Amino acid sequence: MSLSIGTISAFVVGALLAYLCGSIPFGLILTKARGHGDIRALGSGNIGATNVLRTGDKWLAAATLLCDIAKGFAPVVIAERFGAEMAGVAAIAAVLGHIFPVWLGFKGGKGVATAFGALIAYAWPVAAAAVATWLIVAIVFRYSSLAAVIATALTPLYTWCFAPNLGTILVVLVIALVVVWRHSGNIARLLRGEESRIRLRSNPG
Predict the structure, then answer these.
(1) Greater model confidence, 97 or 197
(2) What is the C-alpha separation between 35 and 37, in angstroms, rounded?
(3) Whole-angstrom Cα distance, residue 151 to residue 146?
(4) Alpha carbon of 104 to those of 22, 27, 87, 97, 132: distances in Å?
(5) Distance between CA 156 and CA 174 in Å, rounded?
(6) Is the pLDDT of residue 203 over 50?
């Protein structure tokens, strides 16, 4: 099946716009606006909500999480008006934008929240199953990164169960592979027993 120049151009423009939306570094913008400086100089150096939480500002971390979810959700919702294929391209591009933001020298976050936002719009039952998995693993093992890796790795299977369409499965598989790959450092620390656990309460004093 051949594609016209107009169709190819539409996909390129759609992917670029979704990528630029995903590239917005909300974690960096919000922490600087709140006077916490450059989030990249703190903790893991990532721009996501987990690292923003290390500032001690829970509301700021929550705001970052919601914004990162939104920048995955919005491009897919808009792209769906132009077809399922465009929505799939937008989902992948938005996640890549968060992980490789052009504004920050292509050094961004892990992509979990943005991938979740994209999945809510693209295949919400898959997103719901992934969240349930994350919660169960996080509660049992108290490792946020482990929960993210397992939940993400299972999304292609959930897609096969809840949205058994080859195109949808391929899109989710690409997103899952990229996000799990981005957690390679966390996986190595988990294997060495050096990964930080989720703290259920603050240390006294």
Answers:
(1) 97
(2) 6
(3) 8
(4) 12, 12, 25, 10, 32
(5) 9
(6) no
Tell me how long the chain is.
205
CB–CB of 121/87 below 8 Å? yes
In terms of Cβ atoms closer than 10 Å to its own Cβ (0-12, 13-18, 19+), residue 17 is middle
The pLDDT, as a whole number, for residue 2 is 56
User: Quick count: other Cβ atoms within 10 Å of Cβ 106?
Assistant: 11
HSE of 13, CA atoms in CB hemisphere, 13 A: 8
Question: What confidence category does residue 205 fall into, taking pLDDT thresholds of 50, 70 and 90?
Answer: very low
The CA distances from residue 172 to 36, 87, 92, 193, 195, in Å, are: 35, 12, 8, 30, 27
The set of residues, in sequence order, having a beta carbon less than 8 Å from that of 136 and lying 6+ positions away, is 147
Kindly report which listed range (44-53, 57-66, 147-156, 192-201) carries the lowest average pLDDT score: 192-201
Query: What kind and span of H or E run contains 202?
Result: none
Token pair, residue 3, equals: 């594609």
How much is the mean pLDDT over the chain? 93
Say if residues 173 and 182 touch (Cβ distance below 8 Å). no
Tokens of 72: 């995955």
For residue 1, what pLDDT is reported?
45
